[in-house]
Design goal:
By secondary structure, this protein is mainly α. Helix content is 62%, strand content 0%. 50% of the residues are buried.
């Protein structure tokens, strides 16, 4: 009987799956709601159709949205679909992650590969819940308040229910999964890297403290570092995903915009058309996606006319340089680090409270 895993972590009884799922749902939802306003700023930066871009630095963009549009419909636009997708999504994620991780560790698979694979699997299971909510959330974040006089996004929904009805009526139920492939390209690597970094950080912290109780400071630090590093690495995939889910064209005779479906290419991603409201024809305008600290793309610069993630990344790099890949990396890094730190800190604390108030038999690791 072994008392230690291959990476030196002391093993002890595993919490029940129900505890993991409840703690994950509470921690994940709390973290998402706390950081929703920064996610809104990131979405505005990446989906800004204005040339030159209206939203540049994190601080000025945050203040501008708050001053012009307020909190509920400005900084917290799209919070309701985010809430409805976050809790069930994180419940499914943590249940799937813990199950697959334990199965692989018990089978003797190398721990780092186990954490990566379990992160991929957990996020894939959760994606069937959170991707439709992500589409609604992203559009409402980009739109801001109804009849927004401060920012023209191409969307003008009265609220979450109206957005859902309008999308299903005008674009069909499949529109709720626009960008599904792009979202998986972003979120699966993010979750895999996040939990590999987190598990390794926890192992180092326990070794340094010579025990499992590492204190709240290191609990926050390991979670925040894991999320921030994973979020920075996957920022180019987030740029591609946001562009796909916020592309708009205007159809003559319709009062609401319709998402332009990207060309169906075998290896998956997108173009960025935006409506020219004054034109009776379908026209396209480039969405500015350069880094605000590098250069502003000239009107007429190359448009992403593809449905391929890899092709989209290549086009962005060739036309806008490395800055185009990391548009919005500042708020994304801040958002992922704080959200991850809060989520995983709450996850561990809620697990301890559940063990105290809802004791269940814990399976011992052998």
């Amino acid at each position: 009987m072994r008392s230690e895993s291959e990476n030196g972590e002391q093993l002890e009884g595993r919490p029940p799956y129900l505890h993991c799922m409840l703690a994950g749902g509470i921690g994940g939802t709390s973290g998402d709601m706390l950081m929703h306003s920064l996610d809104t700023v990131k979405t505005r930066q990446q989906g800004d159709p204005h040339i030159p871009p209206k939203y540049t630095s994190l601080g000025s963009s945050y203040y501008k949205i708050w001053r012009q549009e307020g909190i509920r419909r400005g900084l917290y636009g799209g919070w309701l679909p985010a809430l409805f997708g976050s809790f069930p999504g994180t419940v499914l994620f943590f249940g799937s992650y813990e199950w697959s991780k334990r199965q692989m560790l018990d089978f003797g698979i190398q721990p780092h590969l186990t954490y990566l694979t379990a992160g991929f699997f957990g996020d894939f299971v959760a994606s069937f819940v959170y991707v439709p909510s992500e589409v609604l959330k992203t559009r409402l974040q980009l739109q801001g308040r109804y009849n927004n006089p401060h920012f023209t996004s191409g969307y003008n929904y009265r609220g979450t229910t109206d957005a859902l009805r309008t999308i299903v009526r005008n674009e069909g139920p499949s529109a709720l999964f626009y960008g599904y492939g792009a979202t998986l390209w972003r979120d699966l690597p993010y979750s895999a890297l996040q939990f590999m970094f987190y598990e390794q950080g926890q192992a180092w912290a326990r070794k340094w403290k010579d025990g499992r109780d590492i204190g709240w400071q290191l609990e926050l630090l390991t979670g925040a570092a894991a999320g921030g590093l994973a979020g920075t690495i996957t920022c180019p995939l987030d740029v591609v995903k946001t562009r796909l889910q916020t592309q708009v064209v205007e159809v003559p005779g319709q009062s609401s915009p319709v998402i332009a479906k990207p060309a169906v290419v075998k290896d998956g991603q997108h173009g960025i058309p935006v409506a020219e409201a004054a034109s009776p024809k379908l026209q396209k305008r480039l969405i500015s996606t350069s880094s605000p600290s590098t250069h502003t793309p000239k009107p007429g610069a190359v448009t992403l006319n593809t449905s391929s993630v890899m092709t989209g990344l290549k086009i962005i790099y060739k036309s806008e340089g490395i800055g185009g890949w990391f548009r919005g990396v500042g708020p994304r890094a801040v958002w992922t680090s704080i959200q991850s730190g809060c989520m995983l800190f709450l996850y561990q604390n809620v697990l301890r409270q559940l063990e105290r108030y809802m004791p269940m038999e814990r399976r011992e690791v052998v």
